[in-house]
Design brief:
8 helices; 5-stranded mixed beta sheet; alpha/beta; 7-stranded parallel beta sheet
C-alpha cells in the first residue's frame, strides 16, 4: 500500500473527490476521514459517500489514533487549528488548501512547519501555480503605466471573497512591482467618486451557479489590454494537484513548502 492518508473535510465536495481519486491512484491508503460534528454522513463509510464503494474507514468527528503519513485538509477555517495540532503531535505531513484563514492561523501553520513538512497553498491546480509564477513577471515587463484588475469567478456556495487565489495573484504582482500588499488592493468599486488611483489593483469577486473557478488578470494601457488567466473546469484538477503534493511531501524534512517546490518551479 501507499502512504497512509487522512482526509479532513471528507464529506464535502472536495473531500469526497480526494478520497475517490486517492484510492483510484493506488498510491494512498485511506487511514482517516474527518468531518465536522453534526454532518449527516458521520458514521458512513468514506468510500461509499465518495461513490467508490466501501474502503473500511468511516467518517468521524475525531482524528484517527493510528499513525498517518500525510493529511490533506480542504475544509473550513474553523477546523484548521485542530488539523495543524494533530499533524504536529503525530508527525504527519500536511497539505492544506483551506482558504480564508486568519493571521493567527497562518502563524500556527508556520510554527507547525518547524516540526513537520507543510504545504499551504490557496490553489493546488498545476496550471494555476504556473500562473502564480508568471503574473509578477508580466507586470514587471509591462511597467507601471498598465492598470491591473483581477476578476475571480466561483460557485454560489463559496464563503470567502475575494478568493485566496486572487489575493495570491495580487501578492505576487506586488512583490514583483514594489507595491504595498494588501494596501494597494481595492475590493470592487462603487459610488460617484470611484475613479481608479495610480498603482492600485482592483479585485472583483463573482459568485454564480456552479462555476468551478475562473481567474483573469487584466493589464490595461491606453491602446491595448493584455489578459492572462486560468479556468478550472473540474474540481478534480485541484484534487490531483493536492494528491501530487501529498505524494511529494510525505517523508520530507520539516519545513514550509509550496506548490512551486512540488512542481520544481524556480
Amino acid at each position: 500500500m501507499g502512504s497512509k492518508l487522512v482526509v479532513v473535510g471528507a464529506g464535502g465536495r472536495m473531500g469526497r473527490r480526494i478520497v475517490a481519486l486517492a484510492v483510484e491512484s493506488g498510491e494512498f491508503e485511506i487511514a482517516g476521514a474527518v468531518e465536522i460534528g453534526g454532518h449527516p454522513d458521520i458514521g458512513k463509510d468514506a468510500g461509499v459517500t465518495a461513490g467508490i464503494g466501501a474502503v473500511g474507514v468511516k467518517l468521524t468527528e475525531a482524528y484517527p489514533a493510528g499513525a498517518a503519513d500525510v493529511v490533506i485538509d480542504f475544509s473550513l477555517p474553523e477546523g484548521v487549528d485542530a488539523t495543524v495540532d494533530y499533524c504536529a503531535a503525530n508527525h504527519a505531513a500536511l497539505v492544506l488548501g483551506t482558504t480564508g484563514l486568519a493571521d493567527e492561523q497562518r502563524a500556527g501553520i508556520e510554527a507547525a512547519a518547524k516540526k513537520v513538512p507543510v504545504i499551504y497553498g490557496t490553489n493546488m491546480s498545476v496550471g494555476m501555480n504556473v500562473l502564480f509564477n508568471v503574473v509578477g513577471k508580466v507586470a514587471s515587463m509591462l511597467g507601471e503605466e498598465y492598470d491591473i484588475e483581477i476578476v475571480e469567478q466561483h460557485h454560489r456556495f463559496k464563503k470567502d471573497a475575494p478568493s485566496g487565489s486572487a489575493l495570491t495573484l495580487a501578492e505576487r504582482i506586488c512583490e514583483a512591482t514594489g507595491r504595498d500588499f494588501p494596501g494597494c488592493i481595492v475590493d470592487g468599486r462603487s459610488g460617484k467618486e470611484a475613479e481608479r488611483k495610480k498603482g492600485e489593483i482592483g479585485v472583483h469577486a463573482v459568485r454564480a451557479g456552479d462555476i468551478t473557478g475562473v481567474h483573469s488578470v487584466m493589464f490595461g494601457a491606453l491602446g491595448e489590454t493584455v489578459t492572462v488567466g486560468h479556468t478550472a473546469t473540474s474540481r478534480d484538477t485541484f484534487v490531483r494537484g493536492a494528491l501530487r503534493a501529498a505524494k511529494w511531501l510525505a517523508g520530507k524534512e520539516a519545513g514550509l513548502y509550496s506548490m512551486s517546490d512540488v512542481l520544481s518551479i524556480s
